[in-house]
Each structure stands twice: as C-alpha cells, then as structure tokens.
Amino acid sequence: MPTVRLVAVDLAINPNTVMRAYRELEIRGVLDTQQGTGTFVADHPAATTDEEKERKLSQLVGEVVARAGASGLSLNELIEALRQHGTKSNQGATTGQTRRTS
Q: 26, 30, 97, 98: which one has the fewest Cβ atoms less than 10 Å from its Cβ?
C-alpha cells in the first residue's frame, strides 16, 4: 500500500484521515502493517491465532481509550458504558432479537 503521506498528498486530504482509515482497515483485518516494512493487504488465514486476536484487541482498546480521553471521558465512565452496551447486546441475543444492517 502507498504510505499515509503519499495518499494524503495525492488525494489532498489530511494525513490523520488516511492514518485513521488505515488503522480501521487493519483492525478489520484487511491490512497488515509491519514496522519498518510497510502496509500490505492482509492474507486472510483460515483461523485467527490467539496472539493475533490479542493484538487486535489491544489495538482496538488503545483506540477507544484514546478517543474517550480526548472527549473528556474518564476510564470509569468508559467501563460503565461498555458494561451497559454489553448488557443491551446480551439481552437482544437472549430475547431472540437480531440486529439487521442494510
């Protein structure tokens, strides 16, 4: 993949926007960034290893904590919101509700 800087210049957009897009694609498993080598379209292995899941979870948690902090939310507020969200998700699953996206 081209560098963040190159994409930003070519598209005349803020490099932070490109970086966020690359990060999101990495979290979703579309891209794989290798320190010092570059960013590549990810090979999709048959199964995700526990180590890979842990890496993705750590990256996702870091992103959420950073965004919450930038929004002025405390860690306790974030944890409570996650608990409430998890409770709502579990209630939907136990009552047979399904979430549709279109």
A: 98
Q: pLDDT tens across 22-58, in order?
A: 988 888 888 888 888 889 998 875 556 788 788 888 9
Whether 78 and 67 have beta carbons less than 8 Å apart is answered as no
Tokens of 54: 């842990």
The pTM score is: 0.46
CA 52 to chain centre: 13
Could you tell me if residue 62 is left (phi over 0), alpha (psi between -120 and 50 degrees) or otherwise beta?
alpha
Plot region of 8 (φ>0 → left; ψ -120 to 50 → alpha; else → beta): alpha
